[in-house]
Amino acid sequence: MSDRPRLVYERWTDPVAGEILETADVDLVKLDLTAADGQNWAALESAHGYQVATRSDVAGYADGAQWLAGPALLRRCEKLLAVCSAGAGYDVIDVDACTRAGIAVCNNSGPGAEAVAEHALGFMLDLAKKITAADRMLRAGPLSDRMALRGSQLAGKTLGVIGLGAIGGRLVELCAPFDMEVLVFDPYLDEASAQARGVRVVTLAELLERSDFVQVTCPLTRETEGLIGGKQFAAMKPTAFFITTARGPVHDEAALLDALTSGRIAGAGLDVFHQEPPRQDNPLLHLENVVATPHTAGITVEAARDIAVATATQWQAIFDGGMPPRLLNPDVWPRFCDRFQDAFGFRPSATTALESGGRIR
């Protein structure tokens, strides 16, 4: 090798990632968002890999967005071979720009799916059973009429899932005991896979019209940005609940507020917002029919560790010359291999290095 791999990261979801990578022949450099920009750029400009900071990480800094993997960062960081996002979402990375630059893009879908799916189910139960609403009312003063808190059951209802990836698929499994009809809108889901999962693929219009719970679990992409707006909320049942653990820009917040305040839908469970963390004066946070969490669906002890292990082993695979297991832009592979060989003197193989028993060189 002409150089040791250098990996820049902002933080790990669990220290085990650093422990795994510290035993490998890799230079680990922590991106310090409180430090001078010049120090951070010096680190990134020498990096072969970048574990990209999250939007929440950079939100508190005036120029925080410069540390996301967009065209400007890619132009400055000519040595970059691969960038990875912390979890399943990868909207912090411009995938097309990376592909043009010969940079592999990876996420960490899968390890956090259980945590997010359980959180989504929790929203369903909370809204249907009016758990948070009852808690608020009970704490506010003497309860005069319990019937005002009459909720509903999940059993026999219709669940609509927008995006049947790892999270959506696990949510369907968790809802199986409730004997719900499951409708799915996902242009990339084939009929055979749908049948195997016991779901029915429908158009977005049919899903919205028929579902008692509309769950958004798709990634934020050009296709999904603004997918749910005023027209879509108007198509939902007045008794239906809108729930999202995806990304804020998939839905129109102003349209959602209007739907909730006008009674066009019954309520919402929100883990994501357009601005994160949301401002205290965000009107959605002051509605009684909204249950909200600050993008914490995937934050559990177990998920944080699982994601950290997956993160570290994926970087091991990359630097050992294997194909990363969660490669999002496979078209980049030939050019990535050329650039990798120029940097390290050997050519990657199409199988993951860890599967083939290799070690980091």
Automatic annotation (TrEMBL):
All copies of domain D-isomer specific 2-hydroxyacid dehydrogenase catalytic, residue ranges: 72-329
Pfam families named in the record: 2-Hacid_dh, 2-Hacid_dh_C
Keywords: Amino-acid biosynthesis, NAD, Oxidoreductase
GO molecular function: NAD binding; oxidoreductase activity, acting on the CH-OH group of donors, NAD or NADP as acceptor
Domain D-isomer specific 2-hydroxyacid dehydrogenase NAD-binding: start-end pairs: 121-297
UniProt-listed GO biological process terms: amino acid biosynthetic process
Signal sequence extent: none
Domain of life assignment: Bacteria
PANTHER family recorded: D-ISOMER SPECIFIC 2-HYDROXYACID DEHYDROGENASE FAMILY PROTEIN (AFU_ORTHOLOGUE AFUA_6G10090) (PTHR42789:SF1)
Family of the protein in this entry: Belongs to the D-isomer specific 2-hydroxyacid dehydrogenase family.
Protein name as catalogued: 3-phosphoglycerate dehydrogenase
UniProt organism field: Mycobacterium paraffinicum
